Amino acid sequence: MQEITLAPGNDHSPDVNISVILPVYNEEANILALYTGLADTFGNPEISGVNVEFLFINDGSVDSSFELIKGLHDEDPRVKLVDFSRNFGHQAAVTAGIDLCRGDAVILMDSDLQDPPELLLKMIEAWRNGAEVVYAVRQKRKESALMRGTYYLYYRLLQKMANINIPLDSGDFCLMDRRVVNHLKQMPERNRFLRGLRSWVGFKQVAMPYERSARFAGEPKYTLRKLLQLGLSGIFSFSSVPLRLATFLGFAVCLIGVIFLSFVILNYFIAGRPPQGWTSLTVVVLFMAGVQLLILGAIGEYVALIHDEVKQRPNYIVREFIK
Ligand code: UDP
Ligand code: MG
Predict the structure, then answer these.
(1) Which pLDDT score is estimated for 9?
(2) Residues with Cβ within 8 Å of residue 14, at least 6 apart in sequence
């Protein structure tokens, strides 16, 4: 690929370079369909003057994903392959893509065809019209009602708690200008909640609504545990509300204590009834223990985050970069 950097939006400019970053974890059933979709999209005469690289990140797949991508690479020089030494997780895979890609504009998308390749044309057009980040916003999801409800609540909670404005229902599917990518590359943090970091860098951001389809084939590779981890890292890396919760809860508990105490005193002096012991004591002790453990847990999350950062281990290890 040539090394040229050009301002987008200039119709007379020579070719621009686009990188499509595709994290892959056991996606053997999707890779060929995905490749066909991408090849069709970029074969479309509507987008002349575009050089593209398809940068697959093989995140420690144990199926034949590697061989399939290697086969594509042998046929098509646009296909490049970064092979990890083990499974490091989706966010690490995307980070590797960001570190190693060369494009003037960089597209992040999933490899299970939940993100439609056709939308890339519209994203590139928006970029050529001056957008520096084009992020896709899910209008409809084709997941179970429970999952949809959870996602819905999560994004709204995150919106309320985060100290930056993370757009609702936007995932990692996006296009970013080289300048944005260069800033992301400089962020050393290990707990990478990319959609948050992407909002954090700023620049001219444009939303693009789309319908998120169901997976083309195979099971979701995000286990519940990984999903929970991602969700928590979104909240704890972008919000200190849980820490402040201690203060609020402390106030609330004090208030309840004062009300309860007044009730006991009045009950004794006016109604002449001595306080009833055991039950109320147990309730108070249990309640307080619960509150304290909750707060301790929240503080623990931040300590774990700090622990992770100070270790300074790399986000991923590349076994081989097949260009
Ligand atoms: N993925 C990955 N490493 C992992 C888990 C997932 O590279 O440890 C990839 C996966 O192959 C897919 C993308 O990340 O291309 C999104 O995963 P998935 O479809 O399971 O997530 P969901 O769409 O359910 O959010
Ligand atoms: Mg998926």
Answers:
(1) 47
(2) 4, 6, 49
Structure tokens at 104: 């003037």
Most confident of 151-155, 179-183, 242-246: 179-183
Does residue 94 have its Cβ closer than 6 Å to ligand 1? no
Distances (CA, A) of 244 to 218, 235, 251: 42, 13, 11
* Least distant ligand from the CA of 25: 1
Q: What is the mean pLDDT of residues 12-27?
A: 86
Residue list, CB under 5 A from ion ligand 2: 110, 112, 114
In whole angstroms, give the CA distance from residue 16 to residue 9: 10
161-108-231 Cα angle (round to 5): 30
Helix axes 224-238, 194-201, angle to 10 degrees: 30
- 300 torsion bin: left (phi>0), alpha (psi -120 to 50), beta (else): alpha
Segment 228-285, tens digit of pLDDT:
888 888 888 888 788 777 778 877 887 888 788 888 888 888 888 877 777 777 777 8
Residue 149 phi/psi, 5-degree rounding, is -60, -45
Share the mean pLDDT of the chain: 85
Residue 109's alpha-carbon distances to 150, 161, 171, 234, in angstroms, are 22, 26, 9, 19
| Cα 90 to middle of ligand 1, angstroms | 6
Q: Which of the ligands is closest to the CA of residue 226?
A: 1
Instruction: Give buried/exposed letters for 147-174 (b at 16+ CB in 10 A, else e).
Output: eeeebeebbeebeebbeeebeebbbbbb
